[in-house]
Amino acid sequence: MNQGSFIDAIVWFIMLTILFYLNREIEIMRLVGEIEGYLRLYKAVRDKALATTLADFKSVISKKGVEGIDIKLVEKRIKDLVELVFISPTDLDPFGIVRKIKHLLLTSEKTLKKELKSFVPSASDAEIENTLNLLEATRALNFIYKVVNHIYMIGRKFKSLWILMQLDAQLPFITEEVRALEGAIEAFSKGLPVGDSVGPIVAASLIRKYCKQEEIIEEVENTIIAKGVFKNRIIYVIKAKGPGGTVGHLDDALEWVINNAGRVDAIITVDAALKLEGEETGSVAEGFGVAIGGIGVEKFNIEELATKHNVPLYAVLIKMSEEEALSVIDEKLYEGIEKAIANVERFIKTRTPENGIIAIIGVGNTIGVAP
């Protein structure tokens, strides 16, 4: 190799090194710009949700004519509650962990209600529950923003292309969840039913069709049990007490029904289900098992009761997207509700014995859905 060729090779090597470096830096700059755009969106949605929560609670205070309240103190306390964390119990010994989780959930629920009620003693349960729903949605948005910002800051701090690329790839999916929570803020502030309310709506429809007003009782906090008759079967319809935004204590209500009725011949749960891409909103699917999402405490307890008493478990699922589950309910979901009611009635007629006792559970947030 002559001297000219050697110098050319060195020059090409240096140029390639510079190009590789510049390409990496340009890609990092592109990712940083894209992620910052998402972060601005998340922050704006979070701030809007917080402002809506504060405005909603202030309107409750104003409507009830409560005087002598330090509004700045209320605002500070609401902002503090947005930073609230739920610390899961240790699972080093998993025995009894479900009872521990339920205890923590009940403690947090009662404490938050009591604290908000202390500001406005005359506020109704529905108003307090709707404010708690707003608070929960705001807390979720705040958590998403802080976690995404944390990962972004780590990636930028160490100029890690791979951390930024992985985060950027996840952001479209995270944005769907943010948009869903943004829709929930509007619904919760107006007290309107959301997609997740389809289970309680099915239950409320069955109560109106087959149960008498005097047969509706509240033996379990925030949960109603209605007794009726359909096709020579006794039905117990269970749902969270509306129209406040609560999910009730469905497992405790079912246990009360079994203890007081003596037996149950079938348990039918109705709930919203996340649809797959390509599936139609409002389509209905049948299943076996307990259709309940969330942490899993109520699902576990209902499965335990069904197994202990040898009761078959049937489920009716109404399909929707995550955004639809948290947004104001639409026409397609109402059509799905009608199909679900027909399915429940068919289950009772074809899968349960004459003179049987059936428990029907409408699962989901009962905001805007009475009774």
Strand tally is 7
Mean pLDDT: 93
Strand content: 5-15%
Proportion of residues in helical segments: 55-70%
What is the rounded Rg?
Answer: 26 Å
Secondary-structure-based class equals alpha/beta
Distance between the termini: 91 Å
* Contiguous helical run count: 10
- Poorly predicted regions are none
- The shape is globular
Biggest beta-sheet profile: 7 strands, mixed
Order of helices and strands: HHHHHHEEEHEEHEHHE
User: How many domain regions?
Assistant: 2
What topology, given as strand order, has the largest sheet?
1-2-3-7-4-6-5
Which characteristics define this entry?
371 residues, alpha/beta, Rossmann fold, 2 domains, 7-stranded mixed sheet, globular
Tell me what you see in this structure.
This protein starts with a helix and ends in a 9-residue tail after the last strand. The longest helix has 61 residues, at 3-63. Helix 1 packs across helix 2, helix 1 runs antiparallel to helix 4 and helix 6 (198-210) packs across helix 10. Helix content is 60%, strand content 15%. The model has no long low-confidence stretch (mean pLDDT 93). Strand 2 and strand 3 (233-240) form a beta hairpin. With 371 residues, the chain is of the alpha/beta class. The protein has helices at 3-63, 71-82, 97-119, 125-157, 161-190, 198-210, 250-261, 297-309, 322-326, 331-351, and strands at residues 211-220, 223-230, 233-240, 266-274, 284-288, 313-320, 357-362. The chain has 2 domains: 21-190, no CATH class; 195-362, Peptidyl-tRNA hydrolase (Rossmann fold, 3-Layer(aba) Sandwich), CATH 3.40.50.1470. The chain is built from 10 helices and 7 strands. Strands 1-2-3-7-4-6-5 form a 7-stranded mixed β-sheet, with helices on both faces.
